[in-house]
Write a structure and sequence with these properties.
- The protein is mainly alpha-helical and 499 residues long.
- It has one domain: Up-down Bundle (Amino acid/polyamine transporter I).
- 71% of the residues lie in helices and 0% in strands.
- It is built from 21 helices and no strands.
- α3 crosses α9, α4 packs across α13 and α9 packs parallel to α13.
- It is a multi-pass membrane protein.
- It comes from Glaciibacter psychrotolerans.
């Protein structure tokens, strides 16, 4: 990697943004560490590992931990591609403006539509999962009514923090980062060092999870352990216009998010496996929620309660970061006139300098989804969130594909973060990895129940199909004259401006 691009060495943030066709509308008060904290709390290894630990171990056994290395490596390649793109285009919204400037507005419409819904569903899911922690801390029975009320509390408290402005967002994100590091790294290390009930060789022992079949397919089935975990780094770019020196700092924050998040997840997952008193029961699927028992056995009742407080802080920070990222994407989409109510959504609060109307939407729709989950069947949360991971990966790969297309056409990224001659190879391998990941995510199950087996593709089809219908019937692209497909021209313009 190289930062030797003189074209950007002398361009200030406002000058760079003006060259891209926009004026500064936000306070640039977010530092590198606050930006990293935002991405890290969105990625949230604590939330990811807690949510999928039992599923991963019961599907692929202890060796499922290796999916974290596989997916972490693949997503690091994606983050490097994103780093070059955001370094040239440090614009609010991430996926939407990047795909628009790399390809075109119709392509960007569909990518952003899928990504918006994937993020909104993810906000809902994290609030729902976090409600269980809050209920446990308050000793409230986990009923559907309690889950609805506590999920709504998560969403509204996060909205209040987001309304306060970028500085508050950065502070809370840093607090969430500290909670994540304590809850994941510190607890993971403690379990690894002092509470081991298994030997390290257990990570190459399937414990019979494959039954009479091949372990290869059991291992593939556990891929979600990594695939669900390693996204969120793109949120660093969603708030680009609120970061000082974003063209340099955001790529670094993205790489840090993947690296630190990966180490944290490995320590947490490994610690839970080694500290499990009855690992075979988890592998056999007899213990569907083993982490509370592992923590209470290892930390004691008081220690487990303290962990719940730390975990709640991480969950709240995760919801906060998700809302912030979703609102900036909605704002960016609306600023270019690409969605209904775009004038209202594109407004920025003159006092707090945040897109308050977009934030309201990023809170209100998850609230409605929480109510739908409340009145629906028990498995509805799983069903409506099943497409979210695939949707996010499709949106990510839309950027990777568009960047590779531009490279083939002669694009040389003009930001201060550059992969140099390695850019094309990294881009191509990142696309190959993404295709592999999407196939794993979309592969149908084998329960024999059509809806359950095909729910990921059904959910994705509904979202993508509705987006296509709106695109070709309402034609929002005709109402937008913002720049598109100009990566090569902008790169040359940025180099010329600095001469």
């Amino acid at each position: 990697m190289s930062a030797e691009v003189p074209a950007q060495d002398r361009l200030g943030d406002s000058e760079h943004l003006k060259a891209l066709g926009y004026e500064d509308s936000f306070n640039r008060s977010m530092s590198l560490w606050a930006n990293f904290a935002l991405g890290f709390t969105y990625l949230s290894p604590l939330v990811g590992v807690y949510s999928l630990f039992a599923l991963a171990v019961s599907t692929g056994g202890p060796p499922s931990i290796f999916w974290m290395l596989i997916v972490g490596s693949g997503q690091m390649l994606v983050a490097l591609v994103f780093g070059e793109v955001v370094s040239q285009y440090p614009i609010h919204g991430g996926i939407y403006p990047w795909t628009r400037r790399l390809w075109g507005k119709r392509y960007a419409w569909l990518a952003a539509w899928v990504y918006i819904w994937a993020m909104i569903v993810t906000i809902t899911a994290v609030a729902e999962f976090g409600s269980g922690f809050l209920a446990s801390l308050l000793d409230i029975p986990i009923t559907k009514g309690a889950t609805l009320g506590l999920s709504a509390l998560f969403l509204i408290v996060a909205l209040a923090f987001n309304f306060s402005g970028t500085r508050t967002l950065g502070r809370v994100a840093r607090i969430g980062l500290a909670a994540e590091l304590i809850g994941v790294i510190a607890v993971g290390l403690y379990l690894l060092i002092f509470q081991r009930h298994q030997g390290f060789d257990v990570f190459v022992n399937t414990l019979g999870v494959q039954g009479d079949g091949s372990y290869f397919f059991a291992f593939l089935g556990a891929a979600l352990a990594g695939l669900f975990l390693f996204y969120g780094f793109e949120a660093c770019g969603d708030v680009a216009e609120e970061v000082t020196d974003p063209a340099r700092r955001i790529p670094v924050a993205m790489i840090m998010t993947i690296a630190v998040g990966g180490v944290s997840a490995l320590l947490a997952f490994g610690g839970y496996v080694l500290a499990a008193p009855d690992l075979q029961a988890i592998v056999d699927g007899k213990d569907a929620d083993p982490i509370p028992a592992i923590l209470e056995a290892s930390l004691g009742t008081v220690g487990a309660k303290i962990f719940l407080v730390v975990a709640l802080t991480a969950f709240l920070s995760c919801v906060l970061s998700l809302q912030a990222a979703a609102s900036r994407l909605l704002f960016s989409f609306a600023r270019d006139g690409m969605m209904p109510g775009h004038r209202w959504l594109a407004k920025v609060s003159p006092r707090s300098k945040v897109p308050r109307n977009a934030l309201i939407v990023a809170c209100t729709i998850p609230l409605l989804l929480c109510f739908i989950i409340f009145v629906g069947p028990d498995e509805l949360l799983t069903q409506i969130t099943a497409f979210a991971v695939l949707g996010i990966y499709v949106a990510f790969q839309s950027v990777v594909l568009a960047a590779l297309r531009q490279r083939i056409m002669g694009w040389r990224p003009a930001g201060p973060f550059s992969l140099g001659r390695w850019g094309f190879l990294v881009n191509a391998v990142a696309l190959a990895y993404g295709i592999f990941a999407m196939v794993l995510l979309a592969w149908p199950g084998s329960s024999g129940v059509f809806v359950n087996d095909w729910i990921v593709l059904i959910g994705f089809g509904v979202v993508a199909g509705s987006g296509l219908l709106y695109l070709f019937i309402a034609r929002p692209d005709r109402r937008s004259d913002a720049p598109e497909g100009d990566a090569i021209a902008v790169a040359e313009k940025l180099r010329t401006l600095a001469r």
